[in-house]
Amino acid sequence: MVTLDLTSLENSNIKYKISKFPDGQQSITLDKPQITQRMSMILLKSRLNSFKDLELIITANQCLREFGIEDVNLYVPYFLGGRSDRKFGEGQTNYLKNVICPIINSQKFNKVVVMDPHSDVLEACLDNFVKIGNFELVQFALDSINDKNLTLISPDAGALKKIFDVAAKFQIENVVTASKVRDMKTGDIIRTELPTMNLDGINHIVIIDDICDGGRTFVELARAIREITNLPIYLVVTHGVFSAGFNELQKHFTNIFTTNSIVDRYDTDGFVKQLNVFNNNL
Description:
single chain; Rossmann fold; globular; alpha/beta; 23% helix; six-stranded parallel β-sheet; 2 domains; 6 helices
C-alpha cells in the first residue's frame, strides 16, 4: 500500500512539503508527479496528539481528494482525547462523541486504525474504526526481559480484559488485578490495594496498561508492590505521555516499555525502551 507518512518524510512514499504561516495555519503541498489515478489505496499515517496534527491530517486528506484519490485509510496509533469518553461535569461535553470523532468522521476515511484505545466509546463514535491491540509491544517487552517467570498486574478493573487477553496470548498464568481506593469527595487516589499474590518461582513483575500520563497511578501501584516484594518491576504502556517526567518513575521501575505513538524519543539514557509503530504497512 502506498503511504503518506506525516511522521516521517523520509519513509513516506508520497513526498510533501509542510508550510507554516504567520497566523498559525499549516498547509501541505504533495508531490504531484507521484500521485496517479492508479493508486487505489493510500495509507495516511500520522500522530494525533493535538489539533495541529488534526489540521495536517485533514489538509493531507483533502489534497489527496484534489488528485482524485478517494480511498484513504488513516492510521493514528494514539487518538487525541481517548480518555474523555463521557461528560465529566455540568457545563462540559463528551469530547470523543461531540468534538473529535465528528471531525474525523467528516473526512470519510475507509478505515481509521487506532492502537490499544482506552475506551470502547471510541469504537461506538468513530466510523470505520479498526483496533490494533498491544501484543506487539508486549512481545517487545518480553523479549527484552527474556524470562517468562513473571506476574502480570492490571492497575485496575478497567484494564482487566486487556491483561487477560495478553496472558492468554503469551501463556502467562500469573495475573493480578489491583484496585484504586479514591477519596469520595475529590476522586483522588488515596491508596492502591493488591490481593494476596503467590510469587513462588516469580522473577519479575510487569504492569500493563494503555496510557501513562503523569504516572501517579503506576507509582502508587509500585509502592504497594514494594510492600510485598523486591522483585524488579517493569511498566508496559502503549502510549507514553509522561507529563510529569521520569524522576519519580525511575525510583520504582527497572524499565518502561512504550511505543513512539506520542513522540519518537524520550531522553532517559535507556530507561524507556520504545517500539516503532509507524514502520508497519498494516
